[in-house]
Every structure is written in C-alpha cells, then in structure tokens.
C-alpha cells in the first residue's frame, strides 16, 4: 500500500491547485490585501520572464558608458544623447527602462541621476566587466535545454576558462589566460572586501593564495595588513602576470610567486594561512580531491586553510548565486556551486581538521569554510 504524502506536501499540492485555478486568481485580484500578494507573485514571475531583457538593458547601459557618465553628477537626456550617440527620442525610452529597473532616477523631467543599483554598478569595475562577459555566456545559453542534455559541449566559456580544457598537459599558454585573469583581477574587489571583513587575518605572518591569479586578493590583504608576507601559486602562464601586477603595486619585496599545477606540484610550505578563492567551484569532485590532497601533502601541520567562494545556502543571496552558477558551470563544462557542508566533507576527506563555516555579510558573493591542516 502506498503511504500518503506528508502534511506539508499535501498542503503544497492543495495550494498549487488553488493558484492554478483562474477563478481563485480572479478572487485574489478582487480582495485588496490578497491583490497585493498576487501582484507581488506576478511581478516576481515577470522579473524571471523578462530577466534576459532587463539584463540586456544593463549591458547596453554599461557599453554606452551611461552609468559611468552619471557618477557624482546628474545629466539631461540631451547631454546623455550626445555622450552616447543615441538619438534623444530613443534614448529617453531606454532611460525610462533603466529607471523602472532601479538603475536610474528621473529627478526632474529629462534630468537623470543614478539609483541605488546604478551607483553600485558604476562604482565597481568588476561588476561592469562581469556584465560585459555575460554576452559570451548568453550565446552559450541560447539553447539551454540542449546544454542540459549534454548535446552542446563546445561552448565559448569552455574556451575562455582555458584551464578547463587542458587539465592534464602543460596548461594553457600565456595568451589564453589573459582574458579570464583580467576579469578575475577586476572583479576581485567585492570578493576581497567580503572575505577580509569576515575573517581576521591579523595573526597571519605569511599568506599563500593558491590559484591567486594576478594577485588582486593578496594586494587587498596586503593593503589592510602592512606586515603580511605574500605567496602566490598559479599556473606557469599566469605567474608572470602576477609578478608584473604585484610589482606595479610596489609589493615585490613582500612577495614570492610560484608557477605550477596545484593538483600535483609542491606548494610553498612557509605559509601559516592559505586561501582558495573561487577555486574549488571550478572543478568536479575528483579534481577537488586532487587539489586538496596536494595541499595536505605540501602544507605544514597547523596551517589554516580558507575556502572562499559563492556557496549554496539558506539565504536568498546564496540561493540566487547557486541558481546563477548552476547554468554557468554547465556552460563552462566543469565545476559546480556546492554548499558549505559539501565543501566541509571534501576538506575532511582530504584530512583537514577543525572544519567550520563562516558566513559573510554578502552570501551571494561568498561564504567561507575554514579548516586546519
Ligand atoms: C541612507 C542611505 C545613504 C541609503 C539608504 C539605502 C541603502 C541602505 C542602500 C544600500 C546600499 C548598499 C549597501 C548596497 C549594497 C549593494 C551590494 C553589496 C550589491 C552587490 C551586488 C553584487 C552583484 C550584483 C554580484 C554579481 C556577481 C556576479 C555576476 C559574479 C559572477 C562571477 C563569476 C562569473 C565568476 C567566475 C569565476 C569562476 C568560474 C566561478 O571561478
Ligand atoms: C576562477 S580563477 C580565480 C582567481 C583568483 N583566485 C580570484 O578569485 O580572482 C581560477 C584560478 O585558478 C588557476 N588555476 C586553474 N588551474 C590551475 C592549476 N592546475 N594549477 C594552478 N592554478 C590553476 C587559474 O589560472 C586562475 O587564476
């Protein structure tokens, strides 16, 4: 005999039948308090339905330099038309769309200032860079069902993240790492702020950032902790970029940069704290196990290991981020957005101890899982 479903599930099925009924929805629209709830649900669904279009509004705004033009200063439709080269009648429609999406405010007729979201977008180069690189992702997502079936594998993102294509050989060539390394450098500010606010690095003497890219996270940490010695490990094609970038910031005398493969090459062993920022999410479980096993082999007992990346979780931000990355990693052809428990299990399986989760102020950007070698 089939067991009857639990109460919560029966309630959900009843609720779904109600919402599916046009008569119920008509009733909701007639009752003022219910109407507000109904409209909120309708608006949520419309945000999903129009998501691509809203995102393209933002892409056009970034490409036209619209938000940058409004930093600290209002501007008229006419002056924005001459700045962007868009005729003012068309631009006005576009500016109103931006206002409806919370990017701009029409402070007086034909006078525009940034709204809250526009301010954040205009003040963070990394966000604009992410918006621009979505053009590539959206081409990969043109047939999302085919991507899910595994029928599309030759994606642009797979080319872009060159280390995903060649995991066994000598690694990508320098020209192949330029695009993603720059995007990672530019988008590190928000990430670094989030990590450095959530964890106190003041007791750390030597910080090693594994897969540290151009060194943007180390530079942010060095800025906050002037006595910190810096170590960076990344692919041989990336290491010279890191050297150049850290030298340009005057940090060379505090820094050693090492090139190699973090799944198999020895890592510097003089660090008392090691970070993996946006690293594990790029890889499937077997490769994460290889990375962590190599870290466990190389690091001294007592070293703190910090995993920092977007993780799935209970907060709305964590859930949004996990939904975003679910398709992102599918298009990239490797990796997944894990929750903190899954990361903790992988760390424990590799032999790391005292594994704990540390929430950050902005869960859509990162959660930390910290362990001890
Ligand atoms: C009284 C006053 C002055 C104001 C009152 C109003 C008020 C309280 C306003 C709030 C202001 C405020 C604090 C706003 C904060 C806004 C924040 C923190 C916004 C953050 C937004 C972050 C976004 C949209 C992040 C997007 C991130 C993306 C798309 C990341 C993509 C990452 C990728 C593709 C990474 C790739 C690497 C890989 C492959 C995963 O390894
Ligand atoms: C998504 S990026 C993150 C960069 C940086 N941690 C950040 O958050 O901006 C991943 C980094 O891992 C590096 N990487 C990928 N495979 C690697 C390998 N086998 N050995 C060493 N580094 C590797 C890449 O070159 C890249 O810099």
TrEMBL record:
Keywords: Methyltransferase, S-adenosyl-L-methionine, Transferase. GO terms for molecular function: O-methyltransferase activity; protein dimerization activity. Gene3D superfamilies: 1.10.287.1350, Vaccinia Virus protein VP39 (3.40.50.150), Winged helix-like DNA-binding domain superfamily/Winged helix DNA-binding domain (1.10.10.10). It comes from the Bacteria. Residues 176-353 form the O-methyltransferase C-terminal domain. Signal peptide: none annotated. Residues 47-110 form the O-methyltransferase dimerisation domain. Transmembrane segments: none annotated. It holds the Pfam family Dimerisation. One of its GO terms (biological process) is methylation. PANTHER family: O-METHYLTRANSFERASE CICE, PUTATIVE (AFU_ORTHOLOGUE AFUA_4G14580)-RELATED. This is Methyltransferase. It comes from Niveispirillum lacus.
